[in-house]
Design goal:
Length: 275
């Protein structure tokens, strides 16, 4: 995936304003002043795409970024004391509202300052992710402030404090030096690929269960002599008949496609073939 191809997409002040999920999303959440904006800028090869401020709580909206055709979601920092109770409530509604929606969560990256023990809010956030069974990773920020030995000690202490189950990635990062950035990029890419493999499996199941409908769709497109290129972006079905025909890698190359916008072809022997 090309992280150089990144741009600001939209900002939302309430969860009700959020558009429906249009594909797998990777979101970033953490306390105010955890270094989230700096980390996102490093990930996206930008200095000022995500606004950085010395004042905590600068991110007060849910910000969507387009990274090579896929949504990267920046959530407001939580836990900043010097804002009104009403503003804290709005931030809480934003975060909870986002995660309580029926969205395509490919990965949640929970940011924690490596220099300190996880706060109660940090622990609550991680517990929520575990209870909701959302795929997540931990990014420990500001590692450049510690020696390598201190980093290892803090990493072990934080992992123990969070009571993480096995298999949850924990990446030590530094926006200043670039430590862990490539690892986070790789985690995001793998999360998107995993989601696409899941989508493929669902489509395969549908094919086996609806052979007549699948044949009808394929025959219709054969009749129109449409090519796969002509069909890109055309919805074959409306949610009940997912069409299919591209690998997860192809989906990443052409991210505007949805599950039900992929295409299936029926050959002369009435067998499904992928193009």
């Amino acid at each position: 995936m090309n992280f150089h191809n990144a741009s600001f997409k939209a900002a939302y002040g309430t969860s009700e304003q959020l558009p429906a999920s249009t594909g797998p999303e990777v979101s970033f959440a953490g306390r105010s002043n955890v270094g989230k904006s700096s980390l996102l800028n490093k990930l996206m090869y930008r200095k000022g795409l995500a606004k950085v401020s010395s004042t905590p709580g600068k991110t007060a909206t849910i910000n969507f970024y387009d990274v090579d055709g896929h949504d990267l979601v920046d959530l407001p920092g939580y836990g900043y004391a010097k804002v009104s109770k009403a503003e804290k409530g709005r931030w809480s509604e934003l975060i909870e509202g986002y995660y309580n929606q029926d969205r395509d969560f490919a990965l949640v990256v929970s940011l924690i300052d490596i220099r300190h023990e996880p706060s109660a809010l940090d622990r609550n956030m991680v517990q929520f992710l575990m209870d909701a069974e959302l795929p997540f990773a931990i990014a420990l920020t500001k590692a450049d402030k510690l020696s390598k030995q201190q980093q290892m000690k803090q990493r072990a202490a934080i992992k123990k404090a969070l009571k993480l189950p096995g298999g949850v990635p924990m990446v030590v990062t530094s926006s200043e030096k670039g430590d862990g950035i490539d690892e986070l990029r790789a985690l995001r890419r793998e999360a998107l690929l995993a989601e696409m493999r899941h989508v493929e499996a669902q489509a395969e199941c549908w094919l086996e269960e609806h052979p007549d409908e699948a044949a009808r769709i394929a025959a219709e497109y054969r009749r129109t002599q449409a090519t796969p290129e002509m069909l890109l972006g055309t919805a074959v079905v409306n949610g009940e008949s997912p069409a299919f025909g591209f690998t997860p890698e192809t989906y990443l190359i052409a991210p505007s496609l949805r599950v039900y916008e992929l295409f299936m072809w029926y050959d002369e022997n009435e067998r499904w073939t992928r193009n």
